[in-house]
Amino acid sequence: MVLVKSLIVSCHCRIPEISSANLLTPFNILQVQVRCIGNTGCDTGAFTWEKERGGAGDMLHQHKDKENGGARMKQKPTSLHNVMAMEIFESGLSWEVRANSRHYHKHKQKKSFLCFHWGRYADNVVHSYKYSPLTFLPLTLFEQFQRVANLYFLLMLVMQCIPAISSVPWYITIIPLVTVLSVRGLKDLVNDMARRRSDFEVNSRPCDILVSQSFDSAQWKDLCVGDVLRIHKDQVIPADLLLLCSSEPHSLCYVETADIDGETNLKYRQALSATHTQLTSQPSDETLAAFDGLLLCEEPNNSLYTFRGELHWQGECHPLDHAHVLLRGTVLRNTAFAYGVAIYTGADTKILRNCGKQRVKTTQVEKVFNRVVIGIVLSVLLVALLHAILSGVFSSQVMGNADISSTVVVNANPVYTGFLTFWSYIILLSPAMPIALYISFELIHTVHSQFIGWDMEMYWQPAGRPAQARNTSLNEELGQVGYLLSDKTGTLTQNRLVLRQCCIAGEIYGDASVRAEDVEPMDLSWNPFSCGGLHMSAPSLVEKLRGQQCPPSRQFLTALSLCHTVVTEWKEEALFYQSASPDEETLVGAARELGWVFLSRARDFISVSELGVTRQYQLLALLDFTSKRRRMSVLVREPEGGLKLYCKGADIVILERLHKDLQYQERTERALELFSQACLRTLCVAVRSVPEASWEQWRKTLAQSAAMATCDRDALLEKLYDQMERELQLLGVTAIEDRLQEGVPETIALLQQAGLKVWVLTGDKKETAVNIGYSCKLLDPDTRLLEWQELRQILQAPDPGVSFFKARQMELWAVDKKMAGAKTAVVLTGPELAEFDQRPEWGSTFMSLAEHCQSVLCCRVTPGQKADIVKLVRKHTSSVTMAIGDGANDVNMIKTAHVGVGMAGVEGGQAVQNADFALSQFRFLQRLLLIHGRWSYRRISLFLRYFLFKTCGFALVHIWFGFFNGFSALSMYETWFIALYTVLYSSFPVMCLGFFEKDVSAESSLSWPELYKSGQRQELSSPLILALSLLYAVYSSLVLFFIPFGVFYDTALDYQTMAFTVAMAATFTATIEIMLLTRNWTKINIAAVCVSVVLFFIGTGITHSTVLFKKAPADYIFIGVLAKAFVDPVVWLTALLTAWTAVLPSFTAHAVNITLTVHDKQKVHSISPQPVELKSTFRRGTSLRRSPNALF
Amino acid sequence: MVKQEKEFVNRPDNTAFTQQRLPAWQPMLSAGIIIPGFVLIGLAFIGIGVALFVTSQSIQVLEVDYTGVEQSSPCFKCSDPDVKNCVCKMEFNIDSLFKGPVFFYYGLSNYFQNYRGYGVSKDPNQLSGDLDSFKVPSDSCAPYEYVGKTPIVPCGSVANSMFNDSFKLYQIVSGAKIQVTLDGKGIAWWTDYNVKYRNPSVTPLKNAFNGTVKPTFWSKPAYELDPTDPANNGFINQDFLVWMRRAALPNFRKLYRRITEGDYAKGLPAGNYSLEIAYNYPVLSFDGRKKNEFLGIAYLVIGSMCVVMSIVMLIVYAKFKFPEEE
């Protein structure tokens, strides 16, 4: 954690003018802003320096830090430059920016030539592309030869050029190698072109730069450090700017940081008062052009939430912090103009400094396979060594015989012969290491990714967005996911809040059992401000309101329209609300529909139109929301003169502060129960009439306590607030639905059936998370919630497993017979999780417990903790983890998990940018995992196994042949066959298998989620399976050699005929094996199989032809073999027998499998799918109510 | 219309391929198909095996070992490499008629004609009649490339080690020897004789070999291999072609002659024969082997395995399928 000094100014303010508090959104909840505007009291404000914790990714802490509103700190004018040099040295503020002096910075701009770089300031041009026409070839080759496989084959190629050891001519390797390199290079090139285009698009965005007295329209790339810019409303900010002034009062301006942190609420930024007063007094371009401040700030860094700097201007030094800075990538909102001076541009900006490189993820299957490949290479080396030794022995023996057969051994020295033979065998056996595999692998992955994008049923029509596989190498991992870690807001829920019900004076309005879309809209035509969007039908309430019958309901709505921190905005004659908290926005919007229209907020007045009558309330105090208080209040003076405190907050908090004698308490509590059973978020609304005298006294105490030191002050303020918020009168309860996305419960149920553990990680509070857990079927009504204290006891127990099961059967549960078989879910919160840091040994225990649990809910977790949980799961289980989220707070976990899925939703694009897959709806996970994932896993596993079999089975023949040719590394095949076998004769059917194979249809995959479990267990790709494939390959190579050996032994049939026979047998074997593996025969599969066999004969015919021989007698020495062998029944019969014997184990295994297993897939086809139980049960109410309190 | 198009922006194509709904055939194999299939394949293999076995049984083979390792062998005296121009006679007896056409092979054991270094030791260009390669043979021929500075033609190990024993076969009819005509035509591959190996187009052939020497091991130059037939000389000499076609394995046979003409065209009648061998080739070891029945037996074995396996499967299947009946 970096300790950063920053300035906190606490002001003694009479009226907190604008104060924003966020309710209930996950990450904004702790954000509190106390803003002091106006002169009253502020000059006497105490300055306190406080150490503040900061660091990227730790947003929760960041938001806790109070933002600095009207900081103004004046230093005595000193001899500036003398001091500066020292200050720079001491403070590290070494980044110097001179406003409006372009030539000064231009001169020092970063430049580079070849690998030399100089200059200090980056230009504002984004270069994300890698290649230029000149550097493409060397760079791409350099990159590609960093892959071991490519390097290995390059080595082979070089070795093949040495005649003494060249057992196979060089052109055999160069064909596949060049193919692989060029395909890969082309792919990189295309990607780079796309990057170039997007760079160009970004670099040529327009912006207004001040050039000699006036603003000229320019492009982003022209921007230079020190330039003064004018930003229009809704414009993206092109560089990190120091805000000088804005069109709004006090030079406030609002920015949306969705692209940086995913939060859609507005943030405030405010200019220094010095620049504000001086530059806006005569608002013209000239004053800005004359601005000659000198900025000293820290070196460019990646911390988004801290900034240190000083502005030296007009002989004064003004300290700067991050509240004065507009970051590149944020969007200016609600502000007509803002002026700023560029501090960091281009690569120096905070957002670009944050663009970490995407971590390269490799899949489990690939890892296992890579190990197998390494195994193969080692075995090849070993075999080569063995053969080399034997060859030395052989040649020395032959040398001993002084007869004609010694003429065969050309080289005299056995050791030298052995040495050469070693290399020759490495070359000869190199086809066992499948180079074509990597390129085919990539091709299959790409096609699978395309299939995901092409899937119509994963296309989200309202947004026009298909699913997207951003990382094209993780497809098979989708078929193996064991843990799904999901964000809540925006992922499970729509992040669109709707007021569904309310209870006023004990009367419940609205009906939550009707779906929000099906609610009959009320006739609100009498209300000119109504704009729809109310999903609550309560004509009786409207009647009462309009008929002025029910004072509590009128007060209830007044409370809703006053007690909030919403900001209004007029856009095209319509009123828009913007708020940091979606809950508030919903409530204010609902009040507006019902006739209580919040019109505007001035410094100390709130205007509300109540059924057409505009009333002004004087705002006296705003007691803001904190997660600890869980309530907020406003104290207003009514137009009639009375003082009223309106308060809204969590039920528990409000209920305990109520006035003693209450009429509706019982009925309201019943309503609360009902609402929470329907999974609605509830807030209680209450009112209190405050006597003038007590307000006067309270105000004085507040003024005193505000001047105190921070730590004491917070406690004091709390106490003070508490004094005000008591003896409340309950007005009613609001029930907001955080609407689940379509199909979430079904999806979760299906995924759980498929053996996935679904965990929810959210920044939200526990109750909300648990509620959502119930409503999305993650928790069953009878699920027992295991909370921290109990869990802690279990973890601390000497034998956690035993005590866990004991705890499950403990008194609480044993009493209730129905609960005996209850399932358990763990509920944890962020601070509790932090304990795991201190007790690393708990991790594995916890995970083994969690395995028995239905689910784990983690609430109030920071982005960093989300990632830590993913790491915990990754560390202690071998399962594949998948993280799904939609906001910037999920980026960390998305990057950490094996597979990251980003929801392309309301929040900014950060999650999608960093995700491997992008979906628009949570329910698309069904198809992504159960269909695409399962198929991909199956296809790729089969593909790998088959590839291993076909290449090894084919190449290992040389080992056995070595024993009968004096270990001389003679190839068992015609060299052309070696080159063409992998490329032409055996590649198409296996590619088709990789593209089209399916064991069961898409529909059956969904109706039989259990089929997914085979992927989780790695049934098709375990090291054992791959080892068996390897063993099978060895067997088939033995067969491929020894049956023809038996036939050809001591006969007049020559070497070339035998080579052809073995080649034909190998091709047949590969073809029969793929036919056995293929279950789904499309026309393309059939064509591919036929084409491969036909190509074998055509290809062989061509290389054995007279025409080619005449062109190059040395390269086509197999002339005439095909013609001769074609008519020889011995060749055919041998090839047939060999191929059949080679695939016999596989065939038998298939047959035994078919005979023995009760046919899973037949079952799948014959039994119709069962619908998922979806009825909402309300039984769980009891256990839920009990959960937070009663358990302990 | 425009609006509708807008609604489906970015929508994926709805084709069978993109939606992975290509019509496909999913063979539903069951035990009812698999087990009989296994039996059928097994029976077919047994059938082929029996046919091959019967065929190989009907082939009459007679092997004569003339290596001369044993002292009792008539060729023992020739097995000493120092003895030049040695001729020995092997006498043997045929019980019944050898039906024609009779093929006459010579066989070598533990002779690694498939040694890689040996196999590449030739110059394909030279052998296809390229006169430039006569003067400068390919490096691959080393160490049989030059004698002193004179190039060897044909160069390389393979040519150098050409088998040079020659045979004459006599039938002994009441003490008189009747020579059996051995036909040496057409024993090589057609492509070898007509395409792969070519003499340089120089007449007389001898002139093409000016400035070259014969391989060190050869007693006669290439253009004088067959004094009886001028067309059977140079690189297209049938014996040379047979030798140059390398054997696959260390134990091999090569066709020497066929008996297709004259009185013996229909076969060798029963009786006593004498084989006169001009013993030149210094080979020591030789193992006699029986005729090759491997393929037929292999078919029989694999076929029987299939049948046995299918029976086992049937039993297992029956037990598995009807366990409750027991």
UniProtKB/TrEMBL annotation, chain A:
It is found in: Membrane. Its EC number is 7.6.2.1. GO terms for biological process: Golgi organization; phospholipid translocation. GO terms for molecular function: ATP binding; ATP hydrolysis activity; ATPase-coupled intramembrane lipid transporter activity; magnesium ion binding. Mg(2+) binds at D487, T489, D886, D890. Gene3D superfamilies: Calcium-transporting ATPase, cytoplasmic domain N, Calcium-transporting ATPase, cytoplasmic transduction domain A, HAD superfamily/HAD-like. The chain crosses the membrane at residues 171-190, 368-390, 422-441, 943-964, 976-996, 1024-1049, 1055-1077, 1084-1104. GO terms for cellular component: plasma membrane; trans-Golgi network. Residues 106-174 form the P-type ATPase N-terminal domain. ATP binds at D487, K488, T489, E584, F625, K648, R681, T762, G763, D764, R860, K866, N889, D890. Coiled coil: none annotated. It catalyses: ATP + H2O + phospholipidSide 1 = ADP + phosphate + phospholipidSide 2. NCBIfam families: ATPase-Plipid (TIGR01652), ATPase_P-type (TIGR01494). This is Phospholipid-transporting ATPase. It comes from Scophthalmus maximus.
Automatic annotation (TrEMBL), chain B:
GO terms for cellular component: endoplasmic reticulum; Golgi apparatus; plasma membrane. The chain crosses the membrane at residues 33-54, 294-318. Its main location: membrane. Coiled coil: none annotated. This is Cell cycle control protein. Keywords: Membrane, Transmembrane, Transmembrane helix. InterPro entries: CDC50/LEM3_fam (IPR005045). It holds the Pfam family CDC50. It is found in: Membrane. GO terms for biological process: phospholipid translocation. Belongs to the CDC50/LEM3 family. The keyword Membrane applies. It comes from Scophthalmus maximus (Turbot).
